[in-house]
Amino acid sequence: MKSDFYAAISQIAAEHGIPKEAIIEVIEKALVTAYRRTLGNNPPPIEISVRLDPTTGAAHVYAEKQVVDEVFDERFEIDYEVARQIKPDVELGETIVVESTPNDFGRIAAQTAKQVILQGIKEIEREHIYGEYMDREGELVTATVQRIAKGNVILEMGKAEAILPPKEQVETDRYYHGQRLKVYLMEIRREERGPRLIASRTHKQLILRLFEMEVPEIYNGTVEIKSIAREPGLRTKTAVVARQEGIDPVGSCVGMRGIRIQNIVNELNGEKIDVVQWSSDPKEFIANALSPAQVVEVQLREDEHAATVIVPDKQLSLAIGKEGQNVRLAAKLTGWRIDIKSASALLDEERAAAEAREAADAEALQTEVALATAKVETRKVRPDGTVVYQNHHYGPLSDDLIGVAVQLRATPNKLYIYRDDRLIASYILVEDHLDDEEIEEE
Predict the structure, then answer these.
(1) For the chain, what is the domain count?
(2) Can you give the pLDDT at residue 118?
(3) Domain boundaries, position 146
(4) Residues 195 and 172 reside in one and the same domain
(5) Nearest-5° angle of CA 149, CA 154, CA 155?
(6) I need a labelling partner for 1 at 20 to 30 A (CA). Which of 73, 116, 172, 205 fits?
């Protein structure tokens, strides 16, 4: 090993952007393996370490040896008197760690160091990248498109590579070599071949990070993004709220003349972004979420966690959006199921419901009058659970009524069956036909 060994290591470390100590550690581990090979087959389990001289770069091997009276194998044993010079209170049979560098180990060390540097530098570099990026998961990163392989977009981020898988790509985006774009560092996996950085252009958090970058009020916490609903490449809705009085959260995000929101839209290649005011009142929040449509009224059905939203007739298509996109995103943003109705449609429904109620009330009144004047007839419930009225069977009634006398009252359309003045059943009267067989009453 030459005296400029450490200078060479330092140069390699600087070129690859990894710590010099990491390279030295890997070389020392490789030298331990190299020394073990010199011990032959099936050596006894002994502790071995290698240290590189910081001045000369020379390798020094330290290994365990057993203290004996007479040495038969210098690789594993050390004479008692020699051992006492290293450790005065040593005893026979004890093991001590002593320098055991073979005479030709310098050549072995040089070859091993070269091999490690040639073969292992990439692995060391990957481990360093993992250490550098492991705390950056969830961050916004600027990357350059390096190539496209099997549908994956390979991104360059400094000395690291990231993968943009097909499912994390926006369908309307077009990627090309050298393109610079911002991505969300979604996941960092540690695999056998090194760390794997997974990036995304479709993640909702990408929107949050872009707003943090463009809107100082969001970055410093005076404006908060409460929820995000996104259909990547098409449209995004973002609900914001101010954490400090006197701040307009929507205006802060849009910026003067829309410059802030436009920067985000440009980064997303024209994806439309709606910024709406968040509210703790579900009715108000749902109305805001349907922006740019105007809302007349919001009716909540809390048991179903659903809402019916009334909009002016001319605003109906705007509220629903192209292929239902606006109402779909509003539902995702608020967490409520939303049904859209126009004002005229609601009036028609209310008118029809009122007419139906009036008809039902009129029918009920007619029935009540008919029952009040109807003739009361008594019948016994037959063994099959039915009663006979005008040669037709009605039932079956419950088993506990078999053989019991019941009272019958009929209106023009229905037969009502009572027991002790309590209604127990009602049936639509069977119309008589000429070919009906008469059923004699038992």
Answers:
(1) 4
(2) 63
(3) 134-200
(4) yes
(5) 165
(6) 73
Q: What gap in Å lies between CA 286 and CA 307, rounded to an integer?
A: 8
Collect the ranges in the chain with pLDDT lower than 70.
1-6, 8, 15-18, 109-110, 112-131, 191-195, 347-348, 432-442
Residues 6+ apart with CB under 8 A from 128: 17, 18, 19, 22
140: nearest Cα among 227, 217, 208, 228: 208
Q: What distance, in Å, lies between the first and last C-alpha atoms of the chain? A: 121
Q: Which helix (H) or strand (E) holds 202?
A: none
Kindly report the CATH number assigned to the domain that includes residue 88: 3.30.1480.10
For residue 436, the model assigns a pLDDT of 42
- Mention every residue, 6+ apart, whose C-beta is less than 8 A from residue 209: 139, 140, 182, 184
**Strands (DSSP E) along 1-94, which ranges?**
48-52, 59-68, 77-79
pLDDT at 430: 86
Residues contacting 423, CB < 8 A, separation 6+: 416, 417
Distance CA 224, CA 249 (A): 8
Taking the C-alpha atoms of residue 111 and residue 124, their distance in angstroms, rounded to an integer, is: 19
Are 357 and 326 in the same domain? yes
- Closest by CA to 126, choosing from 136, 134, 135, 114, is 134
Euclidean distance between CA atoms 59 and 236, whole angstroms = 62
DSSP string, 259-319: HHHHHHHHHTTT-EEEEEE--SSHHHHHHHHTTTS--SEEEEETTTTEEEEEE-GGGHHHH
Q: Assess whether 121 and 104 both reside in one domain.
A: yes
Could you tell me the pTM of the whole model?
Answer: 0.58
CB 222 within 8 A of CB 244: yes
Taking only the tens place, the pLDDT of each residue in 292-350 is 998 988 999 999 999 999 898 888 899 999 999 999 999 999 999 999 888 777 766 77
- Alpha helices, DSSP H, located in 335-411: 343-373
214 part of a folded domain: no
